[in-house]
Amino acid sequence: MSGRHVAVTRLYGMLLLLLVCCLGFIALSDEVTEGETQDFDERVLRALRSPGDVSVPRGPWWLRPMAEDVTSLGGAPVLLLVTLAVLGFLVLARRYRTVLLVLVATVGGTLLNGGLKHLFARPRPSVVPHLQHVVSTSFPSGHAMLSAIVYLTLGGLLAQLAEPRRLKAYILTVALMLPLLVGLTRVYLGVHYPTDVLGGWVAGLAWALLTALTARALRRRSPALREEAHRVVE
User: Peptide bond preceding 65: is omega within 30 degrees of 0, i.e. cis?
Assistant: First the structure.
């Protein structure tokens, strides 16, 4: 198969996945709004707590502090530091147009998450005590959504700089695993329902795909951006 056919197939695959994510989020949010998922959500949260005391999570003693450490990977301070580090690298590499793309992806995703939370205004879980302090509304999970946006966007950029396919696959696998682990810890700590996290993952993936498709279209129209994307880092 020629390189052009591979590129076209990849483009159609990304568009199809974006469509699936958008439709999936609409369907999930509709179920959440109507309360259809509430029983399932609450049963999952209860199953993760000790039968005799719902304030005690299941598992060995070290699992809770580990979950608290992992969940911080999706928090605003860590995501901001990671984004600033990558932006610094891009500035030093003189990839100024790519810097703008990263800023639009991260800032736009943050605004989108805030807008969705305000729109749905779902209360945080009350069936079990929270094991971490939270202040915002619940759906979609900000940690799950923003970690998906940041790590997938930055992972996609780093994968472009890698030549071997195995290295590209490794980078993208790590970029996928980090939001997955962050989302699971939000449920374990009792600060989000499972459907909050699922909604965050789907919305974050959709935004990351939209950003990637937009960057692809801009590269096709802008020779300067195309040259910058293929420039060897010195």
Answer: no
Q: Is the confidence at residue 231, as pLDDT, over 70? A: no
Contacts of 137 by beta carbon, 8 Å cutoff, 6+ apart: 117, 118, 120, 121, 122, 123, 124
Whole-structure pTM value: 0.92
For the ranges 28-37, 129-138, 158-167, 175-184, which has the lowest average pLDDT?
158-167
**All residues at 6 or more sequence positions from 90 whose CB lies less than 8 Å from its CB, including other chains:** 96, 98, 99, 102, 157
Q: Tens digit of pLDDT for each residue in 194-220?
A: 999 999 999 999 999 999 898 888 877
Q: How far apart are CA 128 and CA 94, in angstroms?
A: 50
d(CA 216, CA 222): 10
Alpha helices in the chain, H assignment, sequence order: 3-33, 38-47, 63-71, 76-92, 96-120, 142-161, 165-188, 194-221, 223-230
Rounded Cα gap, residues 203 and 123, in angstroms: 19
- 49, β-bridge pairs: 57
Q: How far apart are CA 124 and CA 65, in angstroms?
A: 21
